[in-house]
């Protein structure tokens, strides 16, 4: 092809690209949410600036799903967005607005784009967001500014360290890691004594990376902190610098002239760069070089650097303007400026000379260095005054130098203050914002200028100016703010109100606001009352109700309306309204509507009169009343667990902050009903009881278990009325004799189905910390509804973490059947390794050529004799597991008898539910526990008649409910294994797990999606999928990850089935083996990817139709006590009803056969645990023990919601006959 042909081809490609971009832009602007979301995913790979700009605008879309998709698409495009944001500055406002998004991911993505792609304007907008009224926005802005060293940003972050919200203070501390700014270090030093432990730890971490001398003093004080995590961080910060062993030899080489002048500077900058930022103490142990006398090594490094710069200037009188020369001079300026103990004569001279450098980056580094060193010479100040008004890239650091010099001068009037004040009138909004941030708090000489900035066109400047005035003690500043509160411009009013609400308690502004309540202008009184109402210190003031009551009789109807609104807020909520909750603004007017004037006459009941009144104010009030009652308050029919402690024999409640007395009787009071103010339950609001008819009007039972408290042996009854709260149960307990941190586990049952699991933690003794209760799990479904089986859980095995970190295991099988044991992570992990190794040995064998083969062959079966030997080896292992856990209970024989009696009396297997405060107990191999006593080797075991009958096929296809034969010592029987004898379920437990008792949609046919790997044997795969079609209908096949993601986004799935490879890949940077599933050909996804996909799902994505997830691949359920993240936990936290997963690697034909048997039982309407148990027995009859490799992670009562196959078949037959 000739040159002309190539040009034509490039032209066609360009035209195609333009057409594609135009189509993509049209899709991004579609009215359909689904199309916009799909277009955002495609646009993530586009480099077209118009497309990228449209993506940024989508971050402000009205649909949360679209915003999340746009944020996901923009997450990795920061570099491509630099030019787009530079060309279209309005996009910065879109991103600034996205900081308000309720989705944390969207807000943080917008903040990071502002930080890295928006340049200095974007960073300043983030700095202004630190003054926003919403704490989430302030925390997001601080997180996005982490590591930023611009002076205005550092100043704003330093002010954020004083924020009233611990989360914002922590975020600001994390953002200032490594800072050397005096104000920031001082603020971090104050946080070392913060009341919040996490905030103190964040401050210590930030100070540990700073070389500022004040950081060392703060770290030394933090070394005595009461919390270990803070003490350890302080110790690491004080010991972070290693000895500079190689420094003397390198300095010898440089001083002997081993390198030319330019090479010396370059070597010092790039090879010794990290050491140039070390503290002087780090060099005390470094040996002085020959000929240096007592000069520390650090001084020699810095002196050599300054002299090298002088040598460069002498060698080349005209500055080197090449990229290499500019880069070298910039780095040298940064190194000298970052070393506070550099020789002043040479370092300051080099930095001052850098101010006149022709390169803007060098000038900026020189200004920054002078600011860090505090060397504001008259020459430097004059240059900075000129630079802030007209400089290119160095004006920010010049402003920082002026600000620092002004602070060090005691904030006296001078050239620095005049220049910063003049900057408030600069045409550039970014410079005005920088000046407003630097002038906080506003000095009296500049109050008037700062007050003028309240009318600025830029909202960020207005917020900064209002905050500066609020922090000032000048009466004129407060008058300016009060005037701004009643301005017609909503932006000015909002900035002033935010500043009044955020002003520190120790300032004079709150006092001035109270005085303004007596202002002759009604508008001022309304604005002052509204601003005071947002202040937590005023809401908690005992005088506040009196002030509000007085204003209810004010002569102005507008004031009376605002006072009534404030009183309603105080009386309708148990706790004061949070600052971040939106408080609707009642628009002021000079002449209120006549209907409203008569609506709030004193003594006539403003609530009733407003309901009947008409007019704009009455409509606003009713809208606020309805919004308030529907937001943040649970519906009236939701009931919660309330509990507290009382003195024995009295109704006197024990304060939650009070320590409990040793060896003292108390009463644990418990109530089910609306949330109570003085309940000790911290998270009861997030854990309501099921709103189901079977819970109302029934009797529940409360069971207490504790190693510390003395508690009743029997469950305590609690009757739940059809409506309203229950009566209060008062259960006697006694604290331990000695002082300690004590635990008490509380279970609430409905017919042996666990409804609520909670833990009471109390400090006993004089040094105790009070007590509180945390709900670990609440069942989210009807335990006794019409879809439930006729029986609940027979035996509950529950664990909680004790004081020593061990699992405290409690077994409850009904009245009179309670046991206790313990198990630590090390023993659980060892049990898992032994069990999984034994299963692998039963499944695979190694041939002479080193290749691994399945022992079950193409038929998936073993001869009966070989199967019997494998079963005997597993029995020996299972007995050791029983000894590890169950026999430590001390009443194992009684437990065995209870389980056997349950099966004999009910004619069905006993159902065992494993629960716990954490997922880790579920990882124990419960199905391999063998409870028949054994002694000697495998040859000593005698076969139970049931084993021979089952292997010979003489018992039919239905597994026996129990073994009818006696089991003396050394009996080998399948029913000795818990996995064969009982129905064992081990769910993921916790507040975010679904706790569902039904999977799939109610009625109809089962809808399933099958995701599979195309690297599996094609013949076996196709046969397996064809057989599944006969049990699940319809079946959607997904051989690709994009297809799987789209299928999981559907809410109509009953079963999600994975037929694939499970793998482990090292997590980059850590080597941690992260689990993955392979879909299609070499396409893998990890558990974290599911969380990413779920960000685009609705909040209650699987709320009404929770699917069952079956992961038929290698190691899909290989949980351990040390597992960080796994598919089982993630799927259930996303709303799945349950999961069935594998413990080991399985051969393809064996895995396919097991899944077909299990899914066939589910299609017949069997509960999940029953389907898994039946599958195990049917495989055993083939001589295959791999049914024990499958674990159901779900509730023991989980049943299909779809119509069973026999019912569908009968309906189909009846319909045919009728036709």
TrEMBL record:
Residue ranges of coiled coil: none
Record InterPro entries: ARM-like, ARM-type_fold, PBS_lyase_HEAT
Pfam families: HEAT_2
Organism domain of life: Bacteria
Gene Ontology molecular function terms on file: oxidoreductase activity
Protein name listed in UniProt: CHAT domain-containing protein
Organism, as annotated: Wenjunlia tyrosinilytica
Top-level taxonomy: Bacteria, Bacillati, Actinomycetota, Actinomycetes, Kitasatosporales
